[in-house]
């Protein structure tokens, strides 16, 4: 007691200094995790991308050779094009379904938690398992869709859904929407529930119609939530791999090679780890750019609600 | 009491001997039948050493093995598709077996194409483990039902097509022909290229530096398959089968299919209800050919269990080992005792042996990139040329992409 009494005058200063260190100490585990599992691997990937790095044998320094090759690589460009095509379509499809669903399950109505659960269920299935399940569903002989459509007289004979680009692409889009929409719905639901009921009520009293309330009240207040859902969906779609690998092995005549699939092929089929690393860095740059652009577009971070 | 004491002592003794025995880890690819698994079973039951077998999907074996080597987790030995032996030997990842191999009394009678592919710069890195050739099989039961002579092997593709149509006419889900046409490069190099090889053409030049895909013979072969598809003799699932259903013939509803000699073993041992005949695969002009494939036994460089691995391989080459292999469909790897090994076994296996005389095996360091990869030019070509609308485009795309891969690899 007496000791602390004596030390009192300098305690305030010491406390501030100590709390700085203490703060560092608190975030140290997180920092260590990020450093070991993100920063170091990325740096190593950059290092690899500057080499001709075969899976077997000795790496050789080639500077920016891999990046130069990338620019004129028609197959990489095709993969980028396909990934963009896929991302746009699947994101629109997910939102087109998830938004109405979120509004549907937000209102208190009988059995609402049952609806929520049912819609959310596919989310807890792994993407690889879901893909395998749908490979079977889409199988022309032993599956569900083709024989069912034949039975119902919709098609003349059995159609092999996975053999043609358009139908295979449609099958994959439907599968992904089935699998992901529930997740997006939950995110949007939290946003909807965060809108104070008084605001909606006030708007209603002021005579705003249903569409006006949605356009001028709900949408602006949902901006942050939408940004989160959009970024998650776009990032997930750009990194798509499992469904194409499992369901179509790259699709009829290689028309479903996504960027990640191409990186996988370069790294582990052709054994060009260096080139695969360079492609990964390029993809990282693209993802960061797109995410920043989305945040800017949705004006997130400018103001605090 | 005495009994129990005895049992404990015995168990103790056994435990000791097991502890001193080695366990070899070994990988094998899926789809090569049961012959090797059965040998391992027999070896584990009899010997002191144990072989621990891991099955790896055939389409991923190469990258998994390469990754395992890079990560220091490679198995002691591996049953490696023989066409990959040069690539791995060239990368310096395999143990040099030259001295020991040459000391084997039967070395000179080991399957020559395997030893050739297992040899790199005059050193032997791979020895034959299993030999397989591609052959043509027909379902006698369906032939009978369709009013065809079940004992008459078809000699030309004209006959095969006519038969396929008659079998398809039985209706339902009975089909006349099958192939894995959905980007399974490995399946199609095995069963489809014999059509052009028989006629003297090839998809690569002899030094494998030029792609020679676009030949009149290949055009003819593609037309034959296109025609089979157009006449609805092939199940729709074929267009997207990436090799998973390669053995569809075993379901008993396919009239004819080109399969491998391993499948004879599978059919005989696991599907005795299917009555089938086998013959050589006719070329486009009737002259037969075949793909001589199979696996080489390779040892990962620097394994501490080299002696145990050698002992196991010697068992495989023994009369007992060879007999087990043959019973499950792998043709004998030792020419000197082949006759004796096949004695009393299914006579259809002899067709597999006959095929060796007319068979080819491509030698290229880029087999994975060119042929086997499901996104490579060959696999893409097969699907585009047989199922697509633009045959000319399929030819020119594949031809130029193959050439560019070859050029990039030099």
Structure report:
Chain B: Keywords: Periplasm, Plasmid, Signal, Transport. Chain B: It comes from Sinorhizobium americanum. The complex is a heterodimer of chains A (305) and B (410). Chain A has helices at residues 2-49, 65-71, 74-106, 112-120, 127-137, 145-151, 165-193, 197-205, 210-221, 223-238, 242-247, 259-268, 273-297; strands at 51-52, 60-61. Chain A is mainly alpha-helical. Chain A has 2 domains: 2-49, no CATH class; 73-297, MetI-like fold (Orthogonal Bundle). A two-stranded antiparallel ribbon of chain A has the order 1-2. The longest helix of chain A has 48 residues, at 2-49. Chain A is flat. The model of chain A is unreliable at 1-9 (pLDDT under 50). Chain B is α/β, with parallel strands linked by helices and 410 residues long. Chain B folds into 2 domains: 21-132 and 293-360, Periplasmic binding protein-like II (D-Maltodextrin-Binding Protein, domain 2); 135-292 and 363-409, D-Maltodextrin-Binding Protein, domain 2 (3-Layer(aba) Sandwich). Chain B is 45% helix and 17% strand. Chain B contains 19 helices and 12 strands. Chain B has helices spanning 2-20, 35-46, 61-70, 85-90, 98-103, 112-118, 140-145, 157-168, 185-191, 194-197, 216-230, 261-270, 306-317, 319-327, 338-342, 349-358, 367-372, 377-387, 391-409, and strands at residues 23-29, 50-56, 77-81, 119-120, 123-124, 126-139, 175-178, 254-260, 276-279, 281-282, 288-299, 359-360. In chain B, the strands form 2 sheets. In chain B, strands 1, 2, 3, 6, 7, 8, 9, 10, 11 and 12 form a 10-stranded mixed sheet that branches. Chain B has a two-stranded antiparallel sheet with strand order 4-5. In chain B, strand 10 (281-282) and strand 11 (288-299) form a beta hairpin. In chain B, helix 11 crosses helix 18. The longest helix of chain B is centred in the first third of the chain and has 19 residues, at 2-20. The radius of gyration of chain B is 22 Å and the shape is globular. In chain B, 52% of the residues are buried. Mean pLDDT of chain B is 86; it is low at 5-19. Classes of the chains: A mainly alpha (305), B alpha/beta (410). Chains A and B meet through helix 12 of A and helix 3 and helix 18 of B.
């Amino acid at each position: 007691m007496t000791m602390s009494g004596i030390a009192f005058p300098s305690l305030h200063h010491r406390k501030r200094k100590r709390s700085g260190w203490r703060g560092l100490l608190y975030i140290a585990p997180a920092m260590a995790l990020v450093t070991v599992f993100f920063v170091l691997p990325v740096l190593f990937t950059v290092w690899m991308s500057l080499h001709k790095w075969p899976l077997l044998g000795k790496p050789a320094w080639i500077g920016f050779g891999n990046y130069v090759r990338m620019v004129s690589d028609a197959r990489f460009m095709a993969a980028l094009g396909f990934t963009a095509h896929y991302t746009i379509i699947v994101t629109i499809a997910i939102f087109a379904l998830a938004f109405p669903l979120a509004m549907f399950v937000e209102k208190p109505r009988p059995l609402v938690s049952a609806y929520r659960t049912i819609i959310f269920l596919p989310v807890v299935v792994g993407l690889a398992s879901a893909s395998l399940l749908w490979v079977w569903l889409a199988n022309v002989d032993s599956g569900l869709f083709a024989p069912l459509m034949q039975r119902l007289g919709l098609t003349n004979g059995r159609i092999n859904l996975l053999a043609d680009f358009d139908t295979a692409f449609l099958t994959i889009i439907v599968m992904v929407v089935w699998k992901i929409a529930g997740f997006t719905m939950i995110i949007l639901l939290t946003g909807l529930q965060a809108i104070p009921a008084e605001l909606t009520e006030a708007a209603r009293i002021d005579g705003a119609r249903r569409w006006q309330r949605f356009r001028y009240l709900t949408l602006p207040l949902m901006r942050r939530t939408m940004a989160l859902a959009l970024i998650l969906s776009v990032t997930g779609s750009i990194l798509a791999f499992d469904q194409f690998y499992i369901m179509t092995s790259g699709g009829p005549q290689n028309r479903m090679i996504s960027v990640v699939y191409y990186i996988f092929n370069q790294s582990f089929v052709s054994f060009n780890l260096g080139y695969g690393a360079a492609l990964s860095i390029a993809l990282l740059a693209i993802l960061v750019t797109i995410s920043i652009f989305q945040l800017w577009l949705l004006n997130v971070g400018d103001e605090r609600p | 009491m005495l009994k129990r004491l005895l049992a404990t002592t015995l168990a103790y003794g056994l435990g000791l001997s097991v502890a001193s025995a080695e366990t070899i880890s070994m990988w094998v690819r899926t789809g090569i039948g049961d012959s090797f698994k059965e040998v391992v079973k027999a070896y584990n039951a009899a010997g002191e050493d144990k072989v621990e077998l891991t099955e790896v999907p055939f389409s991923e074996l190469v990258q998994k093995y390469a990754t395992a080597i890079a990560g220091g987790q490679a198995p002691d030995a591996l049953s490696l598709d023989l066409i990959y032996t040069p690539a791995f030997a060239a990368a310096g990842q395999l143990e040099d077996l030259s001295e020991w191999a040459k000391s084997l009394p039967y070395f000179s009678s080991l399957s020559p194409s395997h030893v050739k592919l297992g040899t790199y710069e005059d050193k032997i890195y791979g020895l034959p483990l299993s030999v397989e050739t591609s052959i043509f099989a027909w379902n006698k039961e369906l032939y009978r039902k369709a009013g065809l002579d079940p004992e008459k092997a078809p000699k030309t593709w004209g006959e095969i097509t006519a038969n396929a149509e008659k079998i398809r006419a039985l209706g339902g889900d009975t089909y006349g022909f099958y192939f894995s046409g959905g980007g399974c490069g490995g399946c199609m190099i095995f069963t489809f290229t014999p059509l052009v090889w028989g006629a003297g053409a090839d998809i690569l030049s002899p030094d494998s530096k030029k792609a020679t895909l676009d030949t009149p013979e290949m055009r003819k072969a593609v037309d034959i398959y296109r025609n089979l598809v157009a006449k609805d003799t092939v199940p729709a699932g074929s267009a997207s089968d990436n090799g998973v259903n390669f053995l569809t013939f075993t379901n008993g509803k396919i009239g004819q299919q080109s399969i491998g000699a391993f499948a004879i073993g599978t059919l005989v041992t696991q599907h005795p209800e299917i009555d089938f005949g086998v013959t050589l695969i006719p070329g486009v002009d009737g002259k037969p050919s075949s793909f001589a494939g199979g696996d080489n036994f390779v040892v990962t460089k620097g394994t501490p269990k080299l002696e145990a691995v050698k002992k196991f391989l010697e068992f495989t080459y023994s009369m007992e080992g060879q007999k087990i292999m043959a019973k499950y469909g792998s043709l004998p790897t030792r020419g000197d005792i082949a006759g004796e090994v096949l004695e009393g076994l299914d006579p259809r296996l002899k067709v597999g042996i006959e095929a060796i005389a007319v068979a080819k095996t491509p030698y290229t360091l880029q087999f994975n990139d060119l042929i086997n990869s499901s996104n490579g030019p060959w696999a893409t070509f097969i699907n585009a040329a047989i199922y697509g609308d633009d045959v000319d485009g399929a030819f020119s795309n594949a031809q130029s992409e193959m050439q560019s891969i070859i050029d990039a690899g030099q």
